Amino acid sequence: MRIEIPDKKKLIFERSIAIRWGDMDAMGHLNNASYFRYMETCRTDWMQAAGCGSNKDGEGPVIVNAFCNFYRQITYPGEVLAKMYVSEPGRTTFETWITMQRSDDPGTVCAAGGATTIWVDSPNQKAKTLPDWVRTLVS
Predict the structure, then answer these.
(1) 88: pLDDT confidence band, cut at 50, 70 and 90?
(2) CATH numbers and ranges of domains, the chain
(3) Among the listed residues 137, 128, 136, 138, the one whose alpha carbon sits nearest the alpha carbon of residue 54
(4) pTM score, two decimals?
(5) Minimal CA–CA distance to 64: which of 8, 119, 130, 136?
(6) Which helix (DSSP H) or strand (DSSP E) does residue 35 occupy?
């Protein structure tokens, strides 16, 4: 099953990630798990830059699902340009979407994926309403 990235979304962050030799698999292309690591790196860097980590009260973002669609192989050496988008903020969640393309082939999306992020009260293990400042970032 392929999940498509929506047309209506907002670009909020981009990051170049070096392709490491160790990211490759026995077939000579980027291992599937590496795509998820690249998306995690992009998402985490954005969250850190936006001050969107866990706070002193133990509230913060948690990923509740993730997916990736693979369109073209990526091989070593090079860099991946990961572009992160957001959309669809709900009461406790928002969607993140990431496209990945080689820096030396701009505009050609090699893979695209996403994740649902939920705001949680970790000590109580419960979803919590998105803070207004987070909603502003992702709207």
Answers:
(1) confident
(2) 10-138 (3.10.129.10)
(3) 128
(4) 0.93
(5) 119
(6) helix 32-50
